[in-house]
Model the fold of this input.
Amino acid sequence: MNLTYLAGIKQQTNMRIITYNVNGIRSAVKKGFIDWLNTNPADVICLQEIKAHQEDIPVKEIESTGYKVYSFSAQKKGYSGVAILTKIQPDNVVIGCQIEQSDFEGRVIRADFGDKTVINAYFPSGTTGGERQTYKYQWLDEFLEFLNDLRKERPNLIICGDYNIAHLDMDVHNPKTNKNSGFFPEERDWMTKLFANGYVDGFRHINKDPHQYSWWSAFGGARASNKGWRIGYINVTEPLKGNLKHAEIRPDVVHSDHCPVYLEIA
Done:
């Protein structure tokens, strides 16, 4: 019996997932995104901030690399939007979360793969001021309620996305002086509540090292000096905790001011 062959079969049963804010899918394509897809970086790739309506997404180019494209665009042109690229055929795809404002902004898409459900979410940013920060808090509460309702039916959730929140001091380069949206106490408390209610930080469960970031400011050479934030997450519900195999952040992938976050799960 060929044990190497059998090991290969076992390894193939793991799902390799990436979450990645591309800051505009068309811009990313111009920076080598298609060539990157051809390297087979994951089985399922969740993209945020695609900033394109369906007719403007380079679907043929993407699908030439072996990925099927499922997307949900914001009503506003050039804004927000999410997509799931997958080499695994989903059993079911659900567009939106049936919450009006969130769906107007194209923030959530879901795909079911057997007993696992992948949710791709682009969390609102509060960086433009009070009104959007207020909406961010509203969205967080609505989204957690959405997740809690869904996991009653689908307990094995994998929640990918740009959360626009850095949870721990080690998740930002300047925790002592940082007083910006994305690191407000109320936002961090929401993350703490999430993890206290049966959700697991996939990356931190595997990787405890500091200075691991998924976004850098475009100014002041922040990326070169690794002065960043960890705001990209792949979190899972408690039943999947024991299935987590490997996690890493890939800062060498440079189509965006963000980079991919990778998780392998059995």
